[in-house]
Write a structure and sequence with these properties.
By secondary structure, the chain is mainly α. It has helices spanning 2-12, 16-48, 52-59, 61-80, 83-102, 106-133, 140-165, 171-190, 205-210, 215-245, 250-274, 280-299, 304-318, 321-332, 337-366, 371-389.
Length: 390
C-alpha cells in the first residue's frame, strides 16, 4: 500500500503534458542536428576552400559523435534521470552549432561537428525514452508518433530558414540566431519538474548487461538496423539514382526527398490517432509493405510526379517503425528503458554506416539500378524479424 502511495506522490511532482512538450522541443533539436550540416556545408566548404573529399572527411565526425551519444545515454538516464542529460546535451548541440558558425581551424570544426553528433545522438534516444517513461502502456505508441512529428518539424525548419534568410544573412548569423532560441528553450527546461530516476539507488550493471542477451531486444534492434540503413540510403543515394537512371532533374530529386519527409511526418500525425484504437504491432507490417511499394515504383524509371509519389510512399511506409519499436521496448523493459533504447538506437546507427557503405560498394560494382531492390530486400528482412517477435 505504501509503495503504491509513493508512486502516486512521484507522479504528482511533475506535469506529464508539460514534460512531453519539453521532449517534443528536444526532438525538434535532434531534427535540426541531422539536417543542419547538409544545409550549410556548401557555404562552409567555400569559405574554407575545401574540395568534396575534404568536406566528406569533415562531416565524418558527426556519425561518430552520434554513436558515442547513443551508446552512453541510456544507463546514465536510468541512473540519474532525464533532466540534466536533456539540458547538458541541448547545450552541447547549441555550442557545436556556434563552432560551425564561427571557427575556421579544421580541428575546431571537427570537434564542433562531433559535438553536434553527440548532442543530437543523445537527444534522439533521451527524448524517446522520456516520452515512453511518462506514458501509460496504451499511450506509448501514440505519444512516440507525435514525438516523431517534431523530428520532421526540426528537419524541415533548417532548409526553410536557410532559403528564406540566406539572401540577407550569412549562414553564421543564422546559426547564431538559432543558438539564441535554443538557449532560451534550455532555460525553460530548467524550470520544469521531471520524473525521478528509475534506478536512483544505483545502476544494476549485471541486469543492464543481461539485456544484450534478450532475444526480443536483439530482434527489435535489428529492425532499427535495417530501418536506419534504409533512411540514410534514401538521403545519400536517391538523388544519384534519379540522375543516372531517370530523367528527373537534381532540383526535382531534392523535392522528392522533401516528399519523403512530408510523408513520414503526416503519417506519424495519423498514427498518433490510429494507435489509440489499434495495436502498433498490427499496423507496422502494412506500413512496411507501403514502403516497399514506394521503392517498387522507382524500379520503373519513374517520371517526376511518379518519383514524388514513390518517395511519399516510402516516407509514409517507414513512419511507423521507430514509434512501434520503441513503444514495444518501453513496455518490455520498463525498468531499464533508457538502456534498452540506447542499445537499439546504437544498433540502428551501425546500420546506417553498414548500409551506406554497402549500397555504395554494390552500386559501384553492379550499377545504381540495384538501389531500390536492395531497399525492398531490407524491408522483407524487417517483416521477417517483426513476425518472429510475435
Amino acid at each position: 500500500m505504501k509503495k503504491k502511495k509513493d508512486v502516486k506522490e512521484l507522479e504528482r511532482k511533475y506535469n506529464k503534458n508539460l514534460v512531453f512538450v519539453v521532449a517534443c522541443v528536444g526532438m525538434c533539436f535532434f531534427g535540426i542536428a541531422t539536417i543542419v550540416l547538409g544545409s550549410v556545408l556548401p557555404q562552409l566548404t567555400a569559405r574554407l576552400g575545401f574540395d568534396n573529399l575534404q568536406a566528406a572527411a569533415l562531416v565524418a565526425f558527426m556519425p561518430v559523435g552520434s554513436l558515442v551519444g547513443s551508446v552512453f545515454f541510456g544507463p546514465v538516464v536510468d541512473r540519474f534521470g532525464h533532466k540534466a542529460m536533456l539540458i547538458v546535451c541541448s547545450l552541447i548541440l547549441m555550442l557545436g552549432l556556434q563552432g560551425v558558425a564561427f571557427f575556421t581551424e579544421v580541428w575546431k570544426l571537427q570537434f564542433s561537428i562531433f559535438m553536434i553528433g553527440l548532442g543530437g545522438g543523445v537527444l534522439n534516444g533521451e527524448t524517446n525514452s522520456l516520452a515512453s517513461d511518462i506514458s501509460a502502456p496504451e499511450e506509448k505508441g501514440s505519444r512516440l508518433s507525435v514525438l516523431g512529428v517534431f523530428y520532421g518539424v526540426g528537419a524541415i525548419s533548417i532548409p526553410v530558414l536557410m532559403r528564406s534568410l540566406s539572401e540577407r544573412y550569412d549562414y553564421s548569423e543564422i546559426l547564431c540566431g538559432l543558438g539564441v532560441i535554443m538557449t532560451m528553450a534550455v532555460v525553460g527546461f530548467m524550470m520544469v519538474a521531471f520524473p525521478a530516476p528509475k534506478q536512483a539507488k544505483g545502476f544494476p550493471i549485471k541486469k543492464g548487461l543481461g539485456l544484450l542477451k534478450e532475444r526480443g531486444l536483439l530482434l527489435l534492434s535489428f529492425v532499427l538496423f535495417f530501418q536506419s540503413g534504409i533512411e540514410v540510403c534514401c538521403s545519400t543515394w536517391t538523388t544519384t539514382y534519379f540522375a543516372q537512371v531517370t530523367e528527373v532533374t537534381k532540383s526535382e530529386a531534392l523535392t522528392a526527398l522533401s516528399f519523403m519527409i512530408v510523408g513520414l511526418t503526416l503519417s506519424r500525425i495519423v498514427l498518433a490517432v490510429v494507435y489509440r484504437k489499434v495495436k502498433q504491432e498490427t499496423v507496422l507490417p502494412y506500413g512496411l509493405i507501403v514502403g516497399a511499394l514506394g521503392f517498387a515504383l522507382l524500379v520503373a524509371e519513374p517520371s517526376v510526379y511518379r518519383a514524388w509519389v514513390a518517395m511519399f510512399f516510402v516516407g509514409s511506409g517507414l513512419a511507423a517503425t521507430f514509434p512501434t519499436v520503441l513503444s514495444w521496448l518501453g513496455r518490455m523493459y520498463a525498468e531499464l528503458s533508457g538502456t534498452a533504447f540506447s542499445i537499439a538506437i546504437a544498433v540502428g546507427l551501425v546500420g546506417q554506416l553498414v548500409f551506406n557503405y554497402s549500397t555504395g560498394a554494390l552500386s559501384h560494382k553492379f550499377g545504381i539500378e540495384l538501389f531500390p531492390f536492395l531497399m525492398i530486400g531490407a524491408i522483407g528482412i524487417m517483416l521477417v524479424l517483426v513476425k518472429r517477435i510475435k
